[in-house]
Amino acid sequence: QVQLVESGGGLVQPGGSLRLSCATSGSILSVKTMGWYRQAPGKERELVSIVTSRSTTLYAESVKGRFTISRDNAKNTVHLQMNSLKPEDTAVYYCNARAVAGSPTEISERDYWGQGTQVTVSS
Question: Residue 50: phi, psi to the nearest 5?
Answer without folding.
Answer: -135, 155
